[in-house]
Amino acid sequence: MDFSLSPSAVDFRAEVKAFIAEHLTAEVVDQMHATGTFNDKAFNAALADAGLLAGAVPGYGDRDPIELYILFNELEKAGAPYDGLAVTMLVAGVVNAVGTDFHRTRVLENLLTGRLNCCLGYSEPDHGSDVASITTKAVRDGDEWVITGQKMWTTMAHVSDWVFLLTRTNPDVPRHKGLTMFLIPMDTPGIEVQPVPTMATERTNATFYDEVRVGDEWRLGEVDGGWAVMGVALAFERGVMGGTNPAVPLLRHVRDWADRAPSPDGGTMLQDPLLRERLARTAIGNQVSQLLTLRAAWIAATGGLPGLEGSMAKLYATGRYQQAVGWFQEMAGAEGLLSFGVDDAAADGWIDYDARHAPVTTIYGGTTEINRNNVAERHLGLPRNR
Amino acid sequence: MDLDLTEDQEAIREVFAGFFSYETGPERARAAEPHGFDTRAWLRLMQTGAPGMGVAESSGGGGATLADLTVVVEEAGAHIAALPLVDHMVAARLLATVGTCDADVLAGATIIGLALRPPVDGVARTVPTGAVARQVVALDGDALVLIDGDPGDHLENHGCLPLAHRPLAGATVLAKGPDAVDAYRRALDEWRALTASTLVGMTRTALDLGVDYAKERQQFGRPIGSFQAIQHLLADLPGLLEGARLITAKAAWAGDRAVAGQTGVADMGDNEITDFAALACMALVSAGEAATTSTDRSLHVHGGYGFSEEYDIQLYFRRARALAMVLDDPARECRRLADMLITGQATGATA
């Protein structure tokens, strides 16, 4: 095995790092946490203008696929607003894999400019992990479809240009055989976006679809073939496009805080043996998480679809992140409870932020339980339990 | 970048998977307890050239890289071979680095081991291979010494390792000073990486044992592997296994690069770790955790049978714990790692 990046990948990483150093200003970071929108259109556009999005669409283009991993890993490690970009590039990848020439021209080329966004419309108020049971219906009317229903957790819907929408087109067949995927312009009449505030800084949305009419050209994949399109999207989503190194910025913040924070036992917190042990354990978790992600990227780069490997990376990384957050918040004591902008807040409020954010990481993008089911059934070959 | 084994390594894996499957395994490990040495398997192993394969060709060895050796010892771990292979390989490489490695050591006719901790009152205590190795290399102050004599009295233990104390009296000095200390530290890091790989092999088999049992064992009219509570105990393990294997492979890669004079970095703020000493420590802690967790969960899935001597999982359970902590408390290993990461200094990064 060879863990060194190719010279061109090393150059690409250096370009991304230089871009981040120049464009990820304190204002950008403050803005993302103040608005709860982890998407910055100017930042995305600048990334595209710098040529850094050319390899950011999974399965598309002639750039080294490892660039995709490098881009999102560097953005995540730096604490940049990349959530909206990752979803957008994920949809771009699905459009490239299963879309028509119309989709490629109208959508993919626009997404590559970094100036437009997509959001995901899978979950509904009554259907989350059991996504094949969704009820938002699409009914054919000549060359058009009429869509009615409600979606939950449509994060970035309020800044998106398209929603990647899973609908039911046939209620009379087994549930996963009657689904169809659409890409719907968000300015289509009948769509309403309502904010859903969360316990962390990030905002999400509920979206409502009231007899939304779109042409058949906005269908992605076959009629009743939506489950297969979902499969492509999930394989792209899990693992490779960020979300597996959230404890890297946490570790940096904790180290810097501990170096300044006096310990009640004397000296600084950085001299505390238990804190040092936990820093090291977190660093190990970060390194292993990165390697599991790299493995998924490597499989994608060599022609495979790393769905299960992505599940494993997400299971490992999110569990470690939550464990680390719990350790450090406790070790920071009362100051670990203080939020952004409060004097005395441990790590300027980052520990409180991570402790608020961490619970969602084992829920969104496929819960820990769904990922464990996948690994148990499809990797270990254990009998289905449902 | 390339995350596949080389063609040569695939061939090595195939040969040694066959060897350890045929010559070792749970029945042989059980027969070798409590002493923890399978004499017949060692004699056969000598015929494969494995004992000296890690020594440079210029010193009469097989010239295998550290990465090659991880492939061999993962198979030894998977088949719970009761053999002092890791310690012998590491000590033989160390001997060749500071002087010469004689033909009997290269062949494995003389077994050599490594004292992992500083001697106390002139005795290297609880040496992992002390009860089978005639020769033991130890670091006494800044002197690298060779103990040569009859193996020590076996200390009965949790993992049935061939542990024994070895007095330093009469030991010869191989080398002295900073270079000797560096060479010993490098050997300890090689021991960490190769022991990690052994633990990866044990993790692999422990997971297989648990999964196979969960598919066969029926309760409430169904295989217990169909119950989500059982599935979820096991479903965390492939990630632990693959993660431990990857970081162990990365440690070996860094170790081989260090021999070639390429130093690494240990930047925890950027999660950029290419330093051999840091990665070797990370590999041992990761693989130790993967092996202790997987053997623990697999044993639990076996119910009462897992606790019985008859079933193989208990062999893996005990051996995994022994190998994961015979060097030190993993928490202390982590504090050592923190020293490296906080200062950012690449200790022992060069050969």
Give an overview in words.
The complex is a heterodimer of chains A (386) and B (351). Chain A has 386 residues and is α+β, with helices and mostly antiparallel strands. Chain A has helices at residues 7-23, 26-35, 41-49, 66-78, 83-98, 101-111, 226-237, 247-260, 273-301, 307-332, 350-361, 368-379; strands spanning 118-121, 137-141, 144-152, 162-168, 179-185, 191-197, 203-215, 219-220. Chain A has three domains: 7-116, Acyl-CoA dehydrogenase/oxidase, N-terminal domain (Butyryl-Coa Dehydrogenase, subunit A, domain 1), CATH 1.10.540.10; 119-224, Butyryl-CoA Dehydrogenase, subunit A, domain 2 (Beta Barrel), CATH 2.40.110; 238-379, Butyryl-CoA Dehydrogenase, subunit A, domain 3 (Up-down Bundle). Chain A contains twelve helices and eight strands. In chain A, a hairpin with a 2-residue loop joins β2 (137-141) and β3. The model of chain A has no long low-confidence stretch (mean pLDDT 95). Chain B has helices spanning 7-23, 26-32, 39-48, 66-78, 85-98, 103-107, 178-216, 228-235, 237-259, 276-301, 304-307, 313-325, 330-343, and strands at 112-114, 123-127, 135-140, 143-148, 164-167, 172-176, 218-219, 222-223, 266-267, 272-273. In chain B, α9 (237-259) runs antiparallel to α10 and α10 (276-301) packs antiparallel against α13. The longest helix of chain B has 39 residues, at 178-216. The radius of gyration of chain B is 20 Å and the shape is globular. The chains are: A alpha+beta (386), B alpha+beta (351). Chains A and B meet through α8, α9, α10 and α12 of A and α7, β8, α8, α9 and α10 of B.
